[in-house]
Amino acid sequence: MKSLARYLMIVLMLIFTVTALGVEITFWHTECESERQQKIGVLVAKFEALNPDISIKVVPVEENALYNQLLTAKASKKLPTVVELPAEAALMLGNEGLLDVKLNTEIVNSFGDIYDGAKKILATSAGDEFYAVPFHAWVQGIWYRKDWFKKAGLPAPTSWYNIIQAAKYFNKPEKGIYGIVLGKAKDVYAEQVFTPFALSNGARIFTPEGKIDFNTPEMVWTLKFYKELGKYAAPGHTTWSDGRQLYLTGKTAMMFYSTYIMDDIAIAEVQRKIIKSYNPELVKNTGFAPLMVNIRPSIYGQVVGLGILDTATPEQKSAAAKFVKFLMSGDNYIYWCHMAPGGMNPTRRSIAEDPKFLDNPVLSAYGDTYKVIASGLENIEKFGYVNGKVFTEAGKITGQKIIGEAIVHMFDDGWTPEYTAKWAQKQMIQAVSY
């Protein structure tokens, strides 16, 4: 009995010691759907089992609310240890010195096979360091009814001319069918849709020297085209959810969407959750045009990073680094990306080419289309990057949804493209001044 009591005491002391020496980290992520939260919970439980000295507090945050939540957490000194965040938010936090650039860069370099295109989106102005670790990425483009286009004898919507030609042809509002769905709300989606138009027209937000340069002939020209195209688009403050709904129900010929739409189109049970029915022919009748051309070609996409914050303690940073490497390795990484196959594309080449990753009903349904998506990760562009330079102030502009608000005014209040560009220029200068 004495030996048993002594043994139990030793076990309890060990448990107490591990708990006392343990560290808690807080992980914010933007995967708020219940199914994704459950899968993240599985990964967290696995990590904690392998690392009993580390506990993780998981906090889901809506992407559109992330910027304000980070500002609130900063003011109250309750920032997370590691956060899943889009590039613009990473630039914003990095510009304010809140991310551990050295540690995040060490993690990036430790992998050695992250796509260069994904890395440049999260690079500092120096170019060889990184605000966050590129975690997963998507490519945006126009998803279109290629069967409609073929019947009409129209080319793929890759150029300004082809896009507006098709939008005019298919727009039949009296029948509830629209030529295209554009971003026309004060949200991030509006900026995402507008960006490739601007970039393909040679319009940028920043000069190579980093000055705000929105009010230019190229940008005014882009706004004019966007407003003209809006005549053949679904009405109202359309968002990504409107585009998805209209496309899945056969009420628009074209919509802008990231590769997150792939499972909605291809998988019966997913589609039924959205529109209560399933069109088995839709996936084979859907085309994807990631490239847009006017005076130059452009591919727009987004990189989502994992950023370890500099406000964490050394012990928390060490634990967070273990967690990031865990999430981006082997089966763990594939499990995460398969939460949204096609939308969450791995940034590590070895994982993207892994047969285990490619063995997925969504990815296999699109065949060679996935190769187009993966190759796009090397060539994606965004407003905050000019001639190899990174302007982190772009995060503040996106955070305040200035482009989306400008577009709303242009459509709702009858603003001319010239006045819209002038107003947005002023708002952007104010945004980056703080």
How does the SSE layout of this entry go?
Elements: H1 2-21, E1 23-29, H2 34-50, E2 54-60, H3 63-75, E3 82-86, H4 87-95, H5 101-111, H6 116-121, E4 133-145, H7 146-152, H8 160-170, H9 188-200, H10 217-229, H11 240-248, E5 254-258, H12 262-266, H13 268-275, E6 286-289, E7 291-293, E8 297-299, E9 301-308, H14 314-327, H15 330-337, E10 345-346, H16 349-352, H17 355-358, H18 361-365, H19 369-376, E11 385-386, E12 389-390, H20 394-399, H21 402-412, H22 417-433
Parallel strand pairs: 1-2, 1-3
Antiparallel strand pairs: 3-9, 4-5, 4-6, 4-9, 4-10, 7-8, 11-12
Helix pairs in contact: 9-21, 10-22, 21-22
Give a quick set of tags describing it.
single chain, 434 residues, D-Maltodextrin-Binding Protein, domain 2, two-stranded antiparallel ribbon, 22 helices, globular
Describe the model.
The chain is of the alpha+beta class. The chain folds into two domains: 23-137 and 302-367, Periplasmic binding protein-like II (D-Maltodextrin-Binding Protein, domain 2); 139-300 and 380-433, D-Maltodextrin-Binding Protein, domain 2, CATH 3.40.190.10. The protein contains 22 helices and twelve strands. It has helices spanning 2-21, 34-50, 63-75, 87-95, 101-111, 116-121, 146-152, 160-170, 188-200, 217-229, 240-248, 262-266, 268-275, 314-327, 330-337, 349-352, 355-358, 361-365, 369-376, 394-399, 402-412, 417-433; strands at 23-29, 54-60, 82-86, 133-145, 254-258, 286-289, 291-293, 297-299, 301-308, 345-346, 385-386, 389-390. Strands 1, 2, 3, 4, 5, 6, 9 and 10 form an eight-stranded mixed sheet that branches. Strands 7-8 form a two-stranded antiparallel sheet. The model is unreliable at 14-20 (pLDDT under 50).
